[in-house]
C-alpha cells in the first residue's frame, strides 16, 4: 500500500467544479429559455435562492416558483429539475482519472457536496462517478451547507476518522478555510493542477 492509499486516510471530494465542469453556454440558454428569464448571472434568483435549496429548506416547487417569480406545476418542476441536473453533469476527465487511480489503489473515498436532495438522488441513482465512493454526503439531505463547521464535524464523525487523516478537496476558498480551521488537510482545487501530486503532499504533511 502506498502512502497516498493509506488505510487510515479519507479523501473527501467536492462535486461541483471539481468532479463536474461548469455548465456550458448552451445549457444556460436552454434553462433560461424554459424559465423565461436570465439565470446565469450571480445576481439572479437562481443563485440568490440556491443556498436554502441546497440546505433542504425549500422544496423543488418552492425553489423554482421563487426563481421564476410565479407558481409552477409539477410537470414544469420536473422539466426544470432535469435540465438543471443535466447542466451540472459534465464531468472533469482529469479528476475522474485521479479518482480511478485512488479507487484502484483501494483508497478511502467520500464525497461532500452542496446539492439539493432531489438532484443528489438523481445522480446517486445513475451517475458513473458514484461508484468511486464508499460514502456520499449531500447538504440537502443533511440540512446543512458548506462552509458551516457542523457539516464537516458530522461527516468526519460519520467516517470515524481523525480530522488530520481527512484530505478535503474543494474549489471554494471559504469551504477550504473552514475545513482547515477544523484540522482537516485541504487541497484547494484549481483547473489544470496536478491533483494527484497535491493529494500526495497533503497526506505527507
Automatic annotation (TrEMBL):
Protein name: HAD family phosphatase
Organism domain of life: Bacteria
Pfam families: Hydrolase (PF00702)
Source species: Arthrobacter wenxiniae
Gene3D superfamilies linked to this entry: HAD superfamily/HAD-like, Putative phosphatase, domain 2
Entry-linked InterPro entries: HAD-like_sf, HAD-SF_hydro_IA, HAD_sf, PGP-like_dom2
Residue ranges crossing the lipid bilayer per the database entry: none
NCBIfam families linked: HAD-SF-IA-v3 (TIGR01509)
Amino acid at each position: 500500500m502506498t502512502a497516498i492509499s493509506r488505510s487510515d486516510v479519507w479523501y473527501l471530494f467536492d462535486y461541483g467544479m471539481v468532479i463536474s465542469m461548469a455548465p456550458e453556454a448552451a445549457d444556460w440558454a436552454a434553462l433560461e429559455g424554459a424559465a423565461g428569464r436570465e439565470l446565469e448571472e450571480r445576481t439572479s434568483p437562481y443563485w440568490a435562492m440556491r443556498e436554502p435549496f441546497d440546505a433542504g429548506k425549500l422544496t423543488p416547487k418552492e425553489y423554482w416558483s421563487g426563481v421564476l417569480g410565479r407558481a409552477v406545476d409539477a410537470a414544469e418542476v420536473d422539466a426544470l429539475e432535469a435540465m438543471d441536473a443535466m447542466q451540472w453533469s459534465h464531468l472533469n476527465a482529469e479528476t475522474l482519472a485521479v479518482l480511478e487511480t485512488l479507487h484502484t489503489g483501494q483508497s478511502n473515498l467520500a464525497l461532500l457536496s452542496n446539492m439539493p436532495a432531489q438532484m443528489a438522488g438523481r445522480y446517486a441513482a445513475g451517475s458513473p462517478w458514484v461508484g468511486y465512493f464508499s460514502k456520499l454526503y449531500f447538504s440537502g439531505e443533511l440540512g446543512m451547507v458548506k462552509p458551516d463547521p457542523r457539516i464537516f464535524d458530522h461527516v468526519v464523525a460519520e467516517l470515524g476518522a481523525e480530522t488530520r487523516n481527512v484530505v478535503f478537496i474543494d474549489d471554494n476558498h471559504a469551504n477550504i478555510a473552514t475545513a482547515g480551521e477544523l484540522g482537516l488537510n485541504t487541497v484547494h482545487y484549481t483547473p489544470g493542477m496536478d491533483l494527484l501530486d497535491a493529494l500526495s503532499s497533503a497526506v505527507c504533511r
